[in-house]
Amino acid sequence: MSKTILVVDDSGSFRTVVKLALQKAGYGVVEACDGKDAIGKLGGQKVNLIVCDVNMPNMDGLSFLRHVKDSPAHRFTPVIMLTTESQEAKKAEGKAAGARAWITKPFQPSQLVDAVNRLCV
């Protein structure tokens, strides 16, 4: 059975790019448009890994990440932050909140797939 990745980004076209790269690598993909939407999607199914943007409306990626890590059901789910944010302070905040990897946009799909393959065991 293929592993399922939750992709959280407020850009529909960006989610599509990520989804296509992950599906091509053999993963199932669930999409969410922001942190609040993602929390709703997490309630209904098992996900093996989360790819999440930082800057989103309703609930930003770092708030969502903290929520995930506070949830017993998802505490150990690896999270990759995929964002335009490249400041060290933001990266440190993400790492402190529990992000396992930080990829800066624009990115190579192969770079994301490599990170997913490493973390999605």
UniProtKB/TrEMBL annotation:
> What is the designated name of this protein?
Response regulator
Where in the numbering of this chain does the Response regulatory domain appear? Answer: 4-120
Residues recorded with modification 4-aspartylphosphate: D53
Q: Which domain of life is it from?
A: Bacteria
Work out whether the entry's keyword set contains Membrane.
Answer: no
Q: Can the keyword Phosphoprotein be found in this entry's annotation?
A: yes
Q: Which Gene3D superfamilies match?
A: 3.40.50.2300
Q: InterPro entries this protein is in? A: Bact_response_regulator, CheY-like_superfamily, Sig_transdc_resp-reg_receiver
Q: Could you tell me the keywords of this UniProt record?
A: Phosphoprotein
